[in-house]
Automatic annotation (TrEMBL):
Any Pfam family hit: LptD_2
GO cellular component: cell outer membrane; transporter complex
Name used for this protein in its record: LPS assembly outer membrane protein LptD (Organic solvent tolerance protein OstA)
InterPro entries named among the record's database cross-references: LptD, LptD_2
The LPS-assembly protein LptD central domain, residue ranges: 221-692
Annotated organism of origin: Chryseobacterium limigenitum
Superkingdom assignment: Bacteria
Amino acid sequence: MSLNYIHYKYIQKLVKTVFKNILQISIILIFNSFLAQQTSEKLPKNAVNDTISKKDTIVVKKESLEDILQTKADNIRRDFPKKMIYLNKKAQVKYQDMQIDADYISIDEQKSLMYARGKQDSLGKIIEPVITTQAGKKYETDEFQYNTKTKQAIAYNARTEESEGVIIAKKTKKYNDSVFAMKNALYTTDEYFIKKKDTAADYHMLASNIKLIKTKEKSQIITGPIQLYIERVPTPLIMPFAILPFSSKRSAGILIPSFGERQDVGFFLNGLGYYQPIGEHFDLKVLADIYTKGSWNLRPEMNYLKKYRYSGNFSADVGTMVRGIKGLDDYNKNSTYRIAWRHTQDTKANPFLTFSASVDIVSTKFYNNTLNNNYILNQNVLNTQQNSTVTITKRFLKLPITITGTTSYSQNFATGQADLRLPQMNVAINQFYLFKSKTGVRSGLLENITVNTGINLTNFVRTEEGELFKKEMWEKMETGLKNNIALSTNTTLAKYFTFTLGANVDNALTTKTINKFYDPIANKDITETNKGITGYSTFSTTASIQTTLYGMMKFKKGAVVEALRHMMTPSIGFTYSPDFGGSGFGYYKNYYNATGALTPYSIFEGGIVGSPSSGLVGALGFNIGNNIEMKVKSKSDSTGVKKIKIFESLNFSGSYNFAANDHPWSIFTINGQSSFFNNKLNVNTSLSLDPYKIIYLPGQDTGGIRTEEFGHFSVQGFNVQLSYPLSSEIFGAKTDYAKKYKSKGEIRNENYYFDDDNYARFDQAWTLNVNANYAYTKTSGNRIPTRMASVGLDGSIKLTPFWNINGSTHYDMVTKELAYTRIGFSRDQRSFTINFNWVPFGQYKVYDFFIGIKANILSDALKYKDRSFTQPNAPF
C-alpha cells in the first residue's frame, strides 16, 4: 500500500470527524434556543402535558458552606480526591463571625468539619493553645472541632472567660451559640490566673458537669455537685448544685456563714442563709445562726428602694438562747427578739413633706442573751439604752410654719422601763421681727426685736415592758401642751459692747397632777394622782452685755517663744424670775412627811410638762471666755514661726442671786479645751467647785451640811478626756519605692520592691487611737466621791500589704480589769478574704472565722457582699 493512499484515508477520516462534531454542536445550540423560547412564554393552566414534570426537575445541591471560607498558613496542602485541606504553622481560618488560630487545622469539605490543634512540644504536650474568637468572645482550647452545618463544636481543655471569671473544662460541647455543656470543669475568679500571671488559681470550684447558658441580657452557669478548693486543697464546702449568674442585676444566691465557738453556747454557724431579689424594688435575705448547745436565731431582712423617692429595710432577730445542761442548776432557756425598721426619704422627693423612721425594739435582755455575734464584735452588747423614732415633717410654701409629728420609744435596760411618746407634735413658727425697719438697715433695740414661738403637744407614759399597749399603760399615760414665747433684741454700745435683752414666757397644760400626804396607818408618805386639766404660766427676763479684749506679750528677739497672745470674752448678765413657789400661784403645796417635817412639793412634780421654778431669782451671772496662743520659732514653717494653741477655750462661769435668803453664790464651773502636737492630742476638761464649806458629823460620810461659810471651794466634779490618734504618717513620710528600688517580684510579689539583698520593701501602715478618761464626782452631802478612770486603745497595723491586724481594748484603772477587748486578723488571698475576730475576755468569749470571695460576680451567688440595691453601686 502506497504512502499517498494512507494520507488520503487519514484526511478523509479527519474531515468526517470534524463535520460530525460541528453537526452535534449545531443541534445542541438549536435545541437550547428552542427551550429558551418555550420557557420565556407564559404557559396555559391546562398545558400539563406540554411541560416537564416535577420528577424530571433538576434540583441544584445546596452548598455546604453558607459563607466564604478564608484560610491562610505557612504551609497549605489540598487533597482533591478526599476533599481535604490541611493548614500547618500559623494556621488561620475565618468563617462568618468565627476566627480560628492554631498550629494545625484540617478542613473536611465532605463532612463539613473543621479540626484545630494547638502547638505541641517534642513529647506531644500542647504548649500553645488554639484561639477561637466568636462574637467578640475569646476561647482557648487544646483541640477544637467545629461543624459548619450544625454549628456545633467539641473542645478539649477549653478555657472560657465569662465576666470576671474563667471556666476550664476537659471536654466542652457547644450545642448552639447559647448552650454549652462541660465535663470536669473548674471555675475561678482569680485575677492573676485569668491574666496568666500565675499558673495555679488561689481558689477554684470544681464540678463534674456544668451547663453554660448565654443570652443577650445575661449568662449563667448551672452545675451539679460542686466543691470549693483553696490553693488546690479540697474544703468541706460542697453544694449539691449551684447557679452562678453573670449579670449586673441582682440575683438570688446562698449566703455563706462564718463559723467559730462561743464559751456559753458552743460551736456555731453564724449568718447561714439565702438572698432573693423580689421584683425591681424589693429584696429578701434570710439568715440563721445555729449553735451546738441548742440555741438558734432566725434573722429575716427585707430591703426596699424607689429611686429618687425613698429607701429602707425591715429586719428582725427571733431566737432561743439555751445555756447550761438540761437537768442541772445552771440550765436556762430564754426567748429573745428584735424588730427594726429604717426608712429614709430622698430630699428631692418632696421638700414640703418628709418622713423618716428609725425603729429598733428589743426585748429587755436581748443584748445579754444575744445570738447574733455581730453585736458582740461591734460592741452593741454594751448598750444600756435603745431609742426608736418615727418623724413626719410638713412645711408650707406660703406659711411660715413647720409642723413636726414624732413618735418615740426609749428603752432602759438597767431599769427595765420604757418611755413612750405617742405622738408628739410640734408647731414651730419661723422667727420674725416684731417691728419693721424704717431705713432698710436694722438698728436699735426696737427694730432688732425678734420673736420665736411654737406649740408642743406630747402624750407620754413610762411603763414596764410587759405593760406595753395594755390597759395599765393607757391608765398611766398623760398629755401635755406647752407654749413658749421668746423675745430678744440686741444693739451695740460704745462701738465695743454688745447689749442683749430677752424675755421668756412659758405656758403649760397637763392632764395629771399629784397630791402628797402622810398616811399614819401605813406610816409612809403617799403620792396620789389627780386627773384633770391643770396648767401654769411662768416668765423670766434677761439682760447681758459682752465685749472682746485682746492682749499681746512679746519677748526678746531670738527667744524660742516670740509672743504670747490672749483673747478674752467677758460677759455679765442679769436674770429676773418671780417666785412661782408662792402660795398665790397655787403651783406648790406643803405637807408634813413621816418625820413630821413640813415639806414643800410641786403639784406638777414628775409630770410631762415639768415644774415651774420656785424661789425669787434676781441673779447676776458672769462668764469669762479665754483663748491663749503663742508663737514659737519653727524651721519647718515657711514663715519661720508657728502658732501653738495653749487653750482653744477656757471658760469660767458662776452667778450671785441677790434675792436668795441663803447660799446666794452658785457652783462655779471651769471648762477647758485644747490640742497639742499639731492638733493631734485633744484634751477636754471640766471642773465644778462649791464655794461653801460642807461639814459632816463625826464618823459619818453622808448627810453633809452646806454651811454659809464662803471661800472653801471644795471640788464637786472633775473630768478630763484625752484622745490621741497616732499613725505611721505622723512619724515619717512615705517612701517612693519605685525610685529607690528597681527590682520587682513575680506573681503576687509584683506588689513588692526588693533591695540588693533580695529583702522585700513595703510600707507598714499603722494607726493607734489612744483614749483616756478620768471622772471625779462628789454629790452634795457625800464625803466619799465616785471615781471612774479608763484607757482605751483602738488601732490596726499592716504586717504586709496582704496581712492586717486590728483590735481594741479598754482598761478600767479603778477595778484594774480589762473591760472589752477584741482582736481581729484579716488576710487578702487575692480572690478572697479571710477574717478572724476574737473576744478573749468579758461576758462573751467568742471567736469568729469567715472566708469570703471578693469577686462581684460571686457576691450575689455566694453573697460574700450583699449586692442589693441598698448598696451605693446598685444598678437601679
